[in-house]
Amino acid sequence: MHETMVAQNLLEAILTEAEKQQARPVHARLSCGQLNHINEEILSFAFEALAKGTKCQGVKLSVEQKPIKGQCNQCNEVFEFELDNPVCSGCGSDDFKLLPDEPILLEDIEFDTESEDVQSQSGKKDTSSK
Predict the structure, then answer these.
(1) CA distance linking residue 117 with residue 95, whole number of Å
(2) Tens digit of each residue's pLDDT (9 = 90 or more) over 64-112
(3) DSSP helix, strand, coil percent of the chain (3-state; round to 5)
(4) Burial profile 77-98: b = 16 or more Cβ within 10 angstroms, e = fewer
(5) How far is CA 27 from the centre of its chain?
(6) DSSP code of 108?
(7) Quick check: 54 and 16 in contact, CB under 8 A?
(8) How far is Cα 87 from Cα 72, in angstroms, rounded to an integer?
(9) pLDDT tens digits along 7-53
(10) For 80, left (φ over 0), alpha (ψ -120 to 50), or beta?
(11) Spatial contact of 30 and 10, defined as CB atoms under 8 Å apart
(12) Nearest-angstrom CA–CA distance, 16 and 24
C-alpha cells in the first residue's frame, strides 16, 4: 500500500529530526501533487500504527495538495492546469505540455519542548517510496 510506505519513510524522517532537535514532534505538514495523491485518512492510520511506542506517537499529520501545472507551447507561460478548462491562462492556447507532478515532501515539523514550540524547516524531505 502506497500510504504505508510513505508513512514508514515519514516516521523515519521525523524521528531523525526529533533526535537532532531533542524534542517531541507534535505536527508534521506534507505536500504532494495531485497525481502523487495520498489518502490523508489512510496515511494517518498507517502512521499512527507505525508510530505506537515511539517519540512520534500522537503526531498529527496534514497534507497539502499541489495543483497540476502545464507549460504553454505558444507563450511559454507556466499555469495551473484545470480539467474543466484545459487551456493556457496566459494566451488561451490548448497547445501545452503537462509538467512533472510535485513529489511527496515533508515540508515542516512542529516540536514541543516542554515550555515552548520549536519549528523545524526540515529541508523538504522527499518521502515518496522508491
Answers:
(1) 48
(2) 999 999 999 999 999 999 989 999 999 999 999 999 999 999 999 999 9
(3) 25, 35, 40
(4) eebebeeeeebbeeeeeeebee
(5) 13
(6) E
(7) no
(8) 8
(9) 999 999 999 999 999 999 999 999 999 888 789 999 999 999 999 99
(10) beta
(11) yes
(12) 11
- Under 8 Å CB-to-CB from 123, ≥6 apart: which residues? none
Q: How many residues does the chain have?
A: 130
Q: Give the three cell numbers for residue 79.
A: 499555469
pTM: 0.78
The cell for 65 is: 495538495
**Grid coordinates representing 74?**
505558444
Amino acid (1-letter code) at residue 22: Q
Q: Which CATH class is domain 2-66+102-123?
A: alpha beta
Which amino acid does the sequence have at 79?
A: F
Spell out a b/e string for 42-57, using b for 16 or more CB atoms within 10 Å of the CB, else e: ebbebbbebbeeeebe
Amino acid sitting at position 71: Q
